[in-house]
Amino acid sequence: MLEELERRNYAPRTIETYIHAVKHFARHFQRSPDQLGPEHIREYQAALFKKYKFAPNTVNQRVAALRFLFIKTLKKPWSVAETPYPRRTFNLPTVLSQEEVARLIDSARTPFHRLLLMALYATGMRRAELASLKITDVDSQRMVIHVRGKGRKDRDVMLSPVLLEALREYWRGLKCKPSVWLFPGGCHHTANAPITPKVVYHACHHAAQRAGLQRKNVHPHTLRHCFATHLLESGADLRTIQMLLGHSDLEETTIYLHLSQRHLSATTSPLDALPLRNKPEK
Question: Which end of the chain is more exposed for a tag (fewer CB within 10 A), N or C?
């Protein structure tokens, strides 16, 4: 299955997710996947909801992985009618105010964590995109950062002067200057590989706890939502935000219309137009 995924040039994160899903499927039945059939898939799909309490979108991801396994790897038939995808749920993401974002960044546990949070909010990058940045991706002449996006879709985002100064301060503090990765892994940032996305997650998680924002379920993607929503509130158009986020469809970006205070407050409630009496009659 791994070879089939790599031959089709699937993204590393998708490969990791699909392999993990099939491992979980096999562990659930304590049998090799090639010994399992459609009846096991249906049973497993029900268990994902009832036993494991997964959300519909996560179940869809697991079903997609099994579909790839059976069709592309095992060359077995697959019935969409017998294994339907669950209906997807639509939930509005959490968005922090600018004051809360500042509190989150200021609550970072270390200067390096602070830099990661600043970069997330300044660029709207995903945590995996941030972790895999290379030194050559930062173009201070054009004031842009080159991002290798999800689905192998590259894009450029703005380089904030505040972020640039923070990056230069971080660079000056490194005892051993990296040659490839902007954020090398290891205790002293000397590894030959970049930091993992988990490092970015923990930076955000710990800062949210220290800032008293844990009830809002703050994670790295929250800063991506804040980036887009605050840009929209400051007057940026949806098409520009779509390009900065790397969305392939403008419909993905329209979710931020539901979150923008400027757009919500621009529309008055019909209650305000009713000729109501000041006080009800007794």
Answer: C
- Which of 103, 150, 206, 216 does the annotation list as catalytic? 150
Per the annotation, the verdict on 188 as an active-site residue is no
- pTM surpassing 0.85? no
Domain ranges of the chain: 2-73, 98-265
Q: Which CATH code for domain 2-73?
A: 1.10.150.130
**Given the residues 28, 109, 221, 263, the one annotated as active site:** 221
Q: Check if 170 is active-site.
A: no
> pLDDT (tens digit, 9 = 90+) per residue, 7-31?
998 888 889 999 999 999 999 999 9
Active site residue 44: no
52 is an active site residue:
no
State pLDDT tens for residues 90-132: 778 899 999 999 999 999 999 999 999 999 999 999 999 999 9
Write the single-letter amino acid at 211. A
Give the active site residue among 113, 127, 224, 225: 224
Phi, psi of 257 (to 5 degrees): -65, -30
Fold of 98-265: hpI Integrase; Chain A (1.10.443)
Active-site residue flag, 215: no
Q: Closest Cα to residue 145, out of 95, 182, 100?
A: 182
